[in-house]
Amino acid sequence: MKLLDLGLARFMQDQIGDSQLTQEGMGMGTPDYMAPEQFRDALHADERTDIYGLGCTLYHLIAGQVPFPGSSFAEKSHAHAKKEPIPLEERCPEIPAGLAHVVAKMMAKHPSERYQSAAEVAEALAPFVAGNSHSLIQLKQTGR
User: Fold this and answer.
1) Which of 48, 57, 60 lies closest to 114, judged by CA?
2) Which residues, 6 or more positions from 118, have their beta carbon under 8 angstroms from its beta carbon?
3) How many CB atoms within 10 Å of residue 110?
4) Do 121 and 92 meet the contact criterion of CB atoms below 8 Å apart?
5) pLDDT tens for residues 104-133?
6) Does residue 33 contact residue 56 with C-beta atoms inside 8 Å?
């Protein structure tokens, strides 16, 4: 079992005491899972922003570390916008190639290159869920 905290659990050292932290239009979230556009302007985030964050979460669960380790908010912002994470196939050679591809697509830098809906993500992930599990049935229903 893995326990996840997907809330605003971590404040980076360079954010502490920042009076602009929650001003309108400022990026807000847990930096390890934030989409590039969320760092720039959280007001224009959409479903594809959440898909990116879920991709980062899956990357972390599979690889055992976040896609862009670093210490500061600025480092993480730059990495999410400009760098590619170490491919999951290198971090976890036993991962099915198709699953690595799904996670990579979820984490595409540009929203237009990601899955466009949660239903598309559910459909793409369905082959990697145990075939006789209750989870697969629920996943397929979510996709509809």
Assistant:
1) 48
2) 47, 50, 51, 142
3) 10
4) no
5) 999 999 999 999 999 999 999 999 987 655
6) yes
pLDDT of residue 42: 83
Q: What are 134's two structure tokens?
A: 């209750």
Given a contact cutoff of 8 angstroms between Cβ atoms, the answer to whether 104 and 39 are in contact is: no
Dihedral angle sign, alpha carbons of residues 132, 61, 117, 87: negative
Q: Domain residues of the chain, as ranges?
A: 31-112
The SS3 call for residue 52 is helix
User: Which is it for the CA torsion 142, 144, 62, 64, positive or negative?
Assistant: negative
The answer to whether 107 touches 67, Cβ cutoff 8 Å, is: yes
Q: What is the pLDDT of residues 17-64, one digit of tens each?
A: 444 444 444 545 689 999 999 988 888 899 999 999 999 999 999 999
> Which CATH code, of 1.10.510.10, 1.10.10.410, 1.10.3470.10, 3.40.50.720, is assigned to 31-112?
1.10.510.10
